[in-house]
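Entry 14. Two folds queued back to back today. First construct below, sequence then structure tokens.
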Amino acid sequence: MMRALFVREMIAERIGSPRREWSNGRKQEFDTTVREQMERTMKYKEIQQHLKESLKETRFRHTMGVVETAVQLAQIYGCSKKKAKYAALLHDCAKYLPDQDKITMCRREGVPISRAEMENPSLLHAKCGAILARQVYGVEDEEILHAIRVHTTGVPNMSLLDQILFVADYIEPGRTSAPNLDRLRELSLHDLDMTTYRILEDTVSYLNDIKDAGIDPTTMKTWQFYKELTSL
């Protein structure tokens, strides 16, 4: 509860009260407020400090593990390390928004919500994270925002940055419970497409084993895309 309150106060400080702005339907007024108050992108260290205060300690450690892994993968595959660093740092920035606020935010911004996301709104933290990255932290680079937006489900034919964040989120050093982690970490160093497919394969298999677990259709489409890609 206290962390959710901290996040709401942080949003209010940057763009005004989320409860008021997300519910009154005055999109033009809201967008004007954002443009006027968002004078610059927050510096990396500023964002890091905000997240250290707003995320649980375990989540913050996970976030920094993702940063470390994403930068390593960016170095290997020739992606911008700066973009990887920002995308990784902000990928879970909306993790502790209350579920109803996630739904309201997505509706307010015209972001589609799948049936699986409605049944499990925690999945919306990726889409909401991209919104907060732009509106609270001032990130305007669409490649970074897209990577944050799709890091949970993936999308077919992801960009290099998308894949780096998707993979880093799964294999970062603090992860211990997911299957085949050692093999995936080794594989990620030389075949990002196959690593992406194997992560999706393990994810779909895990969700299929859970009774009544809804699988987002985007995850299934992404799994099918990388299955076909890696079988060529």
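Second construct, same run, same settings:
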Amino acid sequence: MSKTSSDQFEQLVMQCKSSVYSVCYMFADSLDMADDLFQVVLINLWNGFGQVKDKNSIKSWVYRVSLNTCISYKRKKRADGASRSSAGFLWPQKSIRAARRPCSTNG
């Protein structure tokens, strides 16, 4: 990915991180789980960012990726019968913890 794409992705994350974290928090059992879900969503966004065709609807795409990632987590959790475990769900090898309270955008 080019430097420009990387900068665009960073700008997108800064604009949408509050709404993404809110979705993750709704599906999580704890703040730590919300942080982990947030990281997985960011990875999924990064992996699909170059394939987004309509840049005008990118915020809708971010929301759908966030929601689908969290729904997949819940389905996997239910299928495994785990009450508070993330066993079998693919998490990144190294997780960079997000701020527990995302910054709000001014404007």
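Quick look at the second one. Residues 92-107 have pLDDT under 50 and may be disordered. The helical segments are 3-27, 31-49, 58-80.
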